[in-house]
Write a sequence for this structure.
């Protein structure tokens, strides 16, 4: 073999080995680049599912959570969990100190752990808890996004370099890399890195902002509150929080649509920006929940004045973007709380401050005042409310919510024509509690729906049992909350329960408070009441005469009975004015062929006067007090000769 031939063979062997190694490297780096791209896509899909869940939770807080919304929330939760499960498996072999491994695999607050909690939480949604976990998950994924992109970019570039090396040979590729690949690639990488940094910064800003108002969102609110508490502790001064909510925002949203509701939210944000100081923290934490946090010795007084000005400005008419809506006037309520933070407890102080502001707002709603400032005993009140809320949940689980029955009799004959079902809580320690002790908290927490369903089913069962014994042929009247009446499925659910008890819709009356009705015919309550009447349920307007549109309500749908409020009945025998008002309402009902029932009848003289006026039915302590089912049965047995309603 000549020297030249040997050299050529050696060169070919080197090239062959180089190409073989290059091909192996190409396969390895190509697979790595593919895996990096798939992980990035999985992360984007998981982030999209989490953001979709966030939108579902926002909708859940501003509207009744129907089956469709719950199903959508569950689907998004399953999507996020599946994507993050795949990502966690891909990260399992990484070093625990790897940034992505920490993001996905952390035991308590890793993205995978958060996704599992969200999947469990979607089965029985609690919007506030879901919201906290979603904010944490979205923050984790926003943190992972630039890392995934950088890994995908590096892996793709390495695979491309290896491919050129295998195709052109090691010596050639070295020269080509120097001239054609490395320089341009580095330039492109630098450009893309700069874009990634800008995109990451933009994503971080958006992750902390409410998209509707541009104010800080809940996640940013918590951080800003902690920062302000830390500054207040260093300055040895106080910090205060204001929470302001729009009255009946859910009704507004359902009646006028999301576009008008968003316009109202932006209007509130503009007013708060105009009234607050530059160093105050402003946020919209969800639905119609707005917060302002201020620091200083005068923070409480300043926020009180801010709330007064904001509420006054919101009450001024505002032109809706949708011309068919016309002018909008918004009513609002506010709660204010204060704290004196300590240097080592700023995080706890911030969280407690927001909880206290929520409690102050709840007190304003209960007392029907515009602004409430949490007193020194407010924290004890918060703890009492928390305990009662826990006990209420236990009461539902243990069937401690039960109906009590108050008879409704014919004014002329004394026959028992019906019973009103009234909710009671048989507390294991405090005995039987009337609604005044727990109803406001039940409505505020959303538990009123479950309590109402439980109480209604038991009342229907009792009525069916009395009918089966031949003791009773009248109607049982169910009290229904405004929240229940806004449920699109309410009519179907009630009809199902009535049929399940062996009754007909004609055997059941639905009592509706006038205060629950609004003038807008597109409100879900108006539609549901009309649907109830169409199915055959008897419709009763409770506390008639106290609403803002008593007579106009009689035109909106078929009303079978008005219940004259006890305020017009008590002391009737001693007040000529009350007698005239009661007579006018009874006359109105008779002219419209509607039954009139007088509530709160307590004396024989009141009963006599109402009977002479032509009132159809009577109810009150003067007839009988509310009683549990077994005592109501005894009442019917004792009056057996006079039963059988016409």
């Amino acid at each position: 073999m000549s020297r030249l031939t040997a050299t050529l063979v050696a060169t070919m062997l080197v090239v062959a080995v180089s190409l073989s190694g290059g091909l192996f490297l190409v396969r390895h780096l190509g697979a790595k680049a593919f895996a990096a791209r798939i992980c990035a896509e999985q992360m984007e899909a998981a982030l999209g599912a989490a953001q979709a869940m966030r939108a579902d939770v926002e909708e859940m807080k501003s509207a009744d959570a129907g089956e469709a919304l719950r199903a959508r929330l569950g689907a998004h939760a399953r999507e996020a969990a599946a994507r993050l499960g795949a990502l966690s498996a891909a990260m399992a072999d990484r070093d625990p100190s790897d940034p992505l491994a920490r993001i996905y695999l952390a035991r308590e607050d890793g993205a995978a752990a958060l996704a599992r909690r969200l999947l469990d939480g979607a089965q029985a949604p609690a919007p506030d808890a879901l919201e906290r976990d979603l904010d944490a998950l979205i923050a984790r994924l926003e943190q992972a996004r630039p890392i995934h992109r950088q890994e995908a970019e590096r892996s793709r570039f390495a695979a491309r370099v290896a491919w050129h090396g295998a195709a052109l040979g090691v010596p050639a590729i070295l020269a080509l890399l120097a001239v054609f690949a490395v320089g341009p690639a580095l330039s492109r990488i630098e450009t893309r890195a700069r874009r990634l940094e800008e995109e990451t910064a933009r994503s971080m800003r958006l992750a902390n902002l409410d998209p509707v108002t541009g104010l800080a969102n809940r996640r940013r609110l918590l951080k800003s509150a902690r920062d302000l508490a830390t500054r207040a502790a260093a300055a040895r001064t106080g910090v205060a929080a204001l929470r302001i909510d729009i009255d009946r925002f859910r009704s507004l949203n359902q009646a006028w649509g999301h576009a008008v509701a968003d316009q109202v939210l932006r209007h509130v944000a503009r007013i708060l920006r105009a009234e607050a100081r530059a160093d105050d923290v402003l946020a919209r934490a969800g639905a119609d929940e707005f917060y302002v946090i201020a620091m200083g010795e005068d923070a409480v007084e300043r926020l009180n004045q801010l709330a007064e000005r904001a509420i006054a400005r919101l009450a001024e008419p505002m032109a809706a973007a949708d011309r068919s809506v016309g002018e909008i006037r918004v009513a609002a309520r506010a709660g204010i709380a204060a704290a004196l933070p300590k240097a080592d407890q700023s995080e706890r102080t911030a969280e407690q401050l927001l909880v206290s502001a929520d409690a102050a707002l709840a007190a304003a709603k209960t007392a029907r005042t515009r602004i409430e400032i949490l007193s020194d005993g407010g924290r004890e009140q918060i703890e009492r409310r928390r305990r009662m809320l826990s006990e209420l949940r236990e009461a539902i689980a243990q069937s401690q919510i039960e109906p009590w029955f108050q008879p409704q009799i014919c004014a002329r004959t004394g026959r028992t024509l019906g019973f009103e079902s009234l909710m009671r809580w048989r507390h294991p320690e405090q005995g039987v509690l009337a609604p005044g002790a727990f109803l406001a908290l039940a409505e505020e927490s959303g538990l009123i729906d479950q309590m109402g369903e439980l109480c209604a089913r038991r009342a229907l069962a009792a009525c069916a049992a009395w009918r089966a014994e031949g003791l009773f042929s009248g109607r049982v009247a169910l009290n229904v909350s405004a929240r229940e009446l806004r449920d699109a499925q309410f009519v179907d659910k009630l009809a199902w329960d009535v049929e399940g008890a062996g009754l007909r819709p004609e055997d059941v009356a639905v009592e509706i408070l006038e205060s629950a009705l609004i003038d807008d015919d597109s409100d879900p309550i108006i539609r549901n009441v009309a649907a109830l009447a169409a199915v055959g349920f008897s419709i009763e307007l409770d506390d008639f005469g106290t609403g803002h549109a008593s007579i106009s309500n009689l035109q909106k749908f078929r009303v079978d009975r008005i219940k004259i409020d006890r305020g017009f009945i008590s002391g009737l025998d001693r007040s000529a004015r009350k007698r005239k008002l009661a007579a006018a309402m009874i006359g109105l009902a008779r002219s419209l062929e509607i039954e009139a029932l007088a509530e709160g009848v307590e004396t024989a003289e009141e009963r006599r006067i109402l009977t002479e006026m032509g009132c159809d039915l009577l109810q009150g302590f003067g007839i009988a007090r509310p009683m549990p089912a077994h005592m109501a049965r005894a009442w019917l047995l004792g009056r057996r000769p006079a039963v059988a309603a016409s």
User: Anything to note?
Assistant: The CA atoms of residues 39 and 87 lie 6 Å apart. Confidence is low (pLDDT under 50) at residues 6-11, 172-182, 642-646. The two ends are 125 Å apart (CA to CA).
